[in-house]
Design a protein that fits this description.
The protein is an all-alpha fold. Helix content is 78%, strand content 0%. It starts with a helix and ends with a helix. InterPro entries: Amj.
Length: 77
């Protein structure tokens, strides 16, 4: 599920960083996120993953074993 939502989160967080550089305050950023323009930015951030990326998720045998091991170790820590 996380892999499917990744493109949306990347766009959303990049826009949040840009808004933070304008507002320079986390509380103001939160208030802006609930304003009309903040909701518009959220809607424009939603995107579907590419078909080829979803197909790559089906072929887990081709994924390098080191990546899986490092991911497991990182989650444990």
């Amino acid at each position: 599920m996380g892999a499917i939502l990744m493109p949306t989160f990347i766009k959303l967080f990049s826009k949040a960083v840009q808004s933070f550089s304008v507002h320079k305050s986390v509380p103001r950023l939160i208030i802006h996120s609930f304003s009309k323009s903040g909701i518009e930015q959220f809607k424009s951030s939603i995107s579907k993953p590419k078909k080829q990326n979803i197909e790559q998720l089906k072929n887990l045998n081709k994924m390098p074993k080191k990546i899986i091991i490092f991911n497991i170790v990182a989650r444990i820590i």
